[in-house]
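dumping the sequnces here before i forget
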Amino acid sequence: MSAMSSTNWNRRNVMKAAMGLAAAGGLAACGGNNGRGGGSGSGTALTQYFHAYGEAGTEQAIKRYAAAYKKADVSTNWITGNNFESALFAALLTKKAPDVFEFHPQLQLVKSGQVADLTDLIDPVKDDFNPNDIKSHTVDGKIYGIRMIDDPQFFYYRKSMFEKAKVEVPTTLDELIEAAAKLTTGKVKGAFLGNDFTAIQNVIIWSAGADTINEKNEIAYHTDGVVEGLKKLRQLFTSGNVLLDAPTDFWDPSSLNQGLCAMQWGGMWSMPAMQQALGDDLGIFPFPKIGSAGKQSVYNGGWSIFVNAKGKNVEAAKEYVKWLWIDQKQYQEDWATSYGFHIPPRTSIAASATKLKTGLPAEGVKLFTDYGHFDNIAYDQTMQTAFAEVISSSVRKNGNPEAALDTCDKKVNVELKKLFG
Amino acid sequence: MSTTTTRGVAQPAPATASPARPRRGLRGNPTVNFWLFTGPFLIGLAIFVFVPIFWSIWLSFFDARYTVTPSKFVGFDNYVQILTNSEFPDSLVTFTVFAAFIVPTTWALSLGLALLVNRLRFMRAFFRSVFFLPTAVSYVAAALIWKMSIFSGVRFGLMNTMLGWFGVDNIAYLANPSPPWYWLVIVTLRLWIQSGFYMILFLAALQNIPAELYEAAAIDGAKPGWQTFRHITLPQLRATSTAVILLLLIAAYQAFDEFFNIIGQKATWAQTPLMELYKTALGTSQDYGAGSAGAVVLSLLICLVTLIQGKFMGFGRGEDSK
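..and the predicted 3d for all of it:
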């Protein structure tokens, strides 16, 4: 009898226990990432997608704002890893598509009817936005996204190392190459431009006096200045004076903070972490000019919020987006200045953001205003990928820049034809 | 279900099962059993294999960007684009070079390990496990270790530290493609992960070779070592070798994880066909049309290669027809 009952226990109860565990595991997995603020919302359920910001507290902040919204139950998907685009676009094709998501302005998203027209939300406060941020989200007079933050990217440098090597802040690419050589010692590399050099793929176009594509939506990057810039970057890449294959990429402050390099290309968001690690031993400068026709430049990237026009709750999503990114100014300021530093696209918030008023952050704002170039909504991801391949084949590999640009032209022209006919 | 209850009760119920459950009732009906056993599999196969295949063939003729339900028919435009205006053809070359190198190398290394482990007098189980363990590691985890700790380009990366002892400068293994150090990273990773598994296959085959063959050879005057290996061991391993080579080829075709994590998508070199298709269809350009066209081309190529291989190596043919 005892043997029988033990068999019984084995077969039934172990199975039950195992299934119970599996079910519990499944439930836990479902409940883990919904970011709900504990039953505060009512009615409609909305989902929003964010890429994982690197700064501590960002995820909690986004979920805190969402929990404060009473008219809908907003859950947050915080996408870690470096494939935010893939995760987002894959999700957009499914029934569980996010209602609200952050991304960059992309003409293709507008043309395919993926993102909703938000003109009526923005119009009342349009004058309060940086006009460039309105322009980069406008297609045929309609505004398709709300800019949350502007993120200028520039060079950070260690003042002490520059002084020790008797190097001035470079204003031309030649000076930068020379400075990198002087700053390189046994343990420290002169410069870090990201592991694959694609972080600077836009600024080398602008610094050479060219543009990505022009007003008439034609290729504008294929100039002698850009070719010269690519050749010089190749020279820098092979000089042995740049940090390569670092454990973290340009968007992370570690390479400069840990003393692996004397200057690093980075974003304004890294500034608080760098100041904390390095104190006053920190300065910034724009990407130096290339050739005689060039001028210094800064890339004004950033993130915008979009409403999924193919979602189930477009109206509720628009209402939520208006509430958070138009009405709730204290959250917008918190988001822009409490974690990493970002520049608020709203003039009124930028004016009240005390953290950006003095010292290095104020210098960052100045570089943003004086040298910044914004995204062009028509210069889409396919074109950017094509130009990234120019960097790969003519800077990291010893390819001919002219030939690489010709290959790029072919791809960009196909894309331009698809978009504009 | 309830209609079969009477029959179920009529049969002797198992001691522990409740008589109310007619578990054995359906056993007599072969048609029901057939669908019961194959049904779930067939449904899965249809949903996850056949529907996607036909869907992607359909997609390949449409302008399908940011959508999988396109409406604009474009004929063979996607095929023209993927074959003439993309890196896809280059990636096929990359893959061929990679396969031509990795398949024989892994084969030789696994066989070598198997021979060594097979000759051990003691601690055989230990070494067998040690060499097999890497198989359990995921490619992604291993790729991150290889990239960020062993072959990191900074001075404190493991390889650079070791080279530093001999006064060699830091090497950027992955950022700088000339010389192509990235192959060292990829090949060592794949060898480390794969050879243990194939070693086990060879080990099993080695233990199946009858000892009499070696005894007979020794009596006939064959020298132990190369001669016995060449004329007895190797021919006896023929079936296993063929299977291993086929499996390795398939694995090479599927190469994605470590390339994706180590090389990344921002490079123009060492992009495998699957990576190019991923970049086209699932990356930021979201061009399902062109991606599907590439997938169809790749499928046709795989069919072709399999047919040719079947013709030459005779894998899967019965013993009689050899």
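The first helix of chain B runs from residue 5 to 10.
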